[in-house]
Amino acid sequence: MPKNSKAVKRELDDDVTESVKDLLSNEDACDDSFKKSSLIVSTWNSKLQYILAQVGFSVGLGNVWRFPYLCQKNGGGAYLVPYLILLILIGIPLFFLELAVGQRIRRGSIGVWNYISPRLGGIGFASCVVCFFVALYYNVIIGWSLFYFSQSFQQPLPWHECPLIKNKTSTYVVPECEKSSATTYYWYREALDITDSISESGGLNWKMTVCLLAAWAIVCLAMIKGIQSSGKVMYFSSLFPYLVLICFLVRSLLLRGSVDGIRHMFTPKLEIMLEAKVWREAATQVFFALGLGFGGVIAFSSYNKRDNNCHFDAVLVSFINFFTSVLATLVVFAVLGFKANIMNSKCIALNTNKIAALLGNGIEASLIPHHINLTQVSQISAEDYHQMIGVIKGVKEDDFQTLGLQSCSIEDELNKAVQGTGLAFIAFTEAMTHFPASPFWSVMFFLMLVNLGLGSMFGTIEGILTPLIDTFKVRKEFLTVGCCVLAFSIGLLFVQRSGNYFVAMFDDYSATLPLLIVVILENVAIAWFYGIDKFFEDLKDMLGFTPYRFYYYMWKYITPILLLVLMCSSFIQLIMTPPSYSAWIEEEAKEQTLPFPLWAIVVCISLVVVAIMPVPVVFGLRYFNIIDENTSGLSTVSYKKGRIIKETARPGEDDDTSLIQGKSPSEAPSPMPGNSIYRKQSGSGPDADTAPNGRYGIGYLMADMPDMPKSDL
């Protein structure tokens, strides 16, 4: 396909007889008659655009604020070992599997699994539901980033210091800010204006409502023309975060204390590797980092040419994702090391002043080393302070606690693990206030978060739109606008003052278990229902070579077992951990863990049930023949200059056969002449129907016929 071509137009002079199965299996074949056919095919403009789309989808906010936290929490550099092992055993095989089925069948998630096994057609619908749940709250986080981005064009930054309250007699610091910190106060009070519990709605936060509207408008405009519009946006949204991360790394390495953070990060705690929890969290991170089960991977790969080397793509994107996580971890801990040194210096200054005040009143002057001058606090180094504290603690061992002195250790500061919004909107923003030219770095950081979020959102929305367009044959423009308007309307739940608690609820309960079940069923559907041997033949036919035998054993035995273990452990953890959330108490200016009320627990359970419900429902409808399984197959159709007209399938043709049987043109049976033909329409002028931006499989426009089924089900 030419690089600058948005579509491939083919003219057909001679009649060609082929079934849909033959067409989809051989659309990239080089026979002259097919090259001339009058079809419009939607594909990626270039391989680079496709790789950037997959990288943009898989590399998201979790790489920046989840992976560094897990690395710190689970043994530092030692955590990379189980992560890499599980990336090879779970991540790459499943990513390769999704790429392969999407590329071969050229459908979204609903069509793919419907054709693999009609009784498992609910897998695709479950993926769509989970994608929709995730999109609802994920775009709220992009809205938060847009708000901070818009507030970053100020010097000093608005979260640089606590606001003051002035009255007739005095000026004082806002109590809530004084008890916490300037960045914490700005996040909870100025940005979110959060309530004390999930039960208190507090009404809409108009600032965040506007930001959410802007976020959905960006997503809608980028997705409205399908991959032709979103693909171009990918060049910026996928590459810009790497530019920012590299700039941040170079800048942070020049700051005092950055090496302390990196050293702390990569100091391995090998004993922690033996804990089962570390492996479970590493497996979960691998699973979500690659976007498995969402349908976005399948949707993007469905626009590929049939002979694209998807095995190379799977390995490449997986390792790009891993190295991005390591790069982000380096940046985060270099910046946190700088912040820890600043906080440590403040701690030393504060406690040195306390010691000076206690001289002769609890601490004897003889306990202070002679070379330390307490009147020059700024000249006291960390080594001097620790020497002084060591002497005082040795002499005043029994009374040391009553003196109220702190040890002021950089390690203690770095051990204060933060993740998610706490890392991005509190810890990182606080560190950036100490950067020279802090507004510039704040603008870059939050623009990076917006781009990381948008890259993942494009894949998530594609995981909703592509299968629905394939199934219900609607125009992509209308469905995109309708989906975004509906999601924004429901998303107002997340921009009320208590919205942050609902974001946490959806993040914890709407995706984890449902996606694990979806991916297990995907793996089982290919390895056991469709047949791993047959699938390997398909891959050989598609790729031109047989994949490594390693994948055979992974898909058939190892990966399903590991996924079942992961699902069971996640399920046990959910049961053992009482449903709770972290609430911000305004009066005390601190976070407090509160149990969910009964109605919220019902909502949590409903999220899991609704996401999984399509799987048993579709299975039951198929099993009891309430919906005829034959309706999922491919009927033979006539293609006429951008139109599809349904006709009767060949007698005896097996409708349940998957599209990915991998038969060559010579092996595949041809339908009887007259049943399904290409014809060049006479009189096709400018008024003739043209193919839409949406697609039926590879871009055909459905004829508006009364007997056309509305759904693949």
UniProtKB/TrEMBL annotation:
Coiled coil: none
Region (Disordered): 650-692
Entries under SUPFAM superfamilies matching the protein: SNF-like
Membrane-topology annotation of the record: Multi-pass membrane protein
Subcellular location: Membrane
GO molecular function, one term: proline:sodium symporter activity
InterPro entries (UniProt xref): Na/ntran_symport, Neutral_aa_SLC6, SNS_sf
Sites where the protein binds Na(+): 56, 59, 63, 321, 452, 456
Gene Ontology biological process: L-leucine transport
Transmembrane feature ranges: 48-68, 80-101, 122-149, 206-224, 233-254, 282-303, 315-336, 440-465, 477-495, 515-532, 553-576, 596-619
Pfam families reported in the protein's UniProt record: SNF (PF00209)
Domain of life assignment: Eukaryota
Similarity comment text for this entry: Belongs to the sodium:neurotransmitter symporter (SNF) (TC 2.A.22) family.
Protein name: Transporter
Taxonomic placement: Eukaryota, Metazoa, Chordata, Craniata, Vertebrata
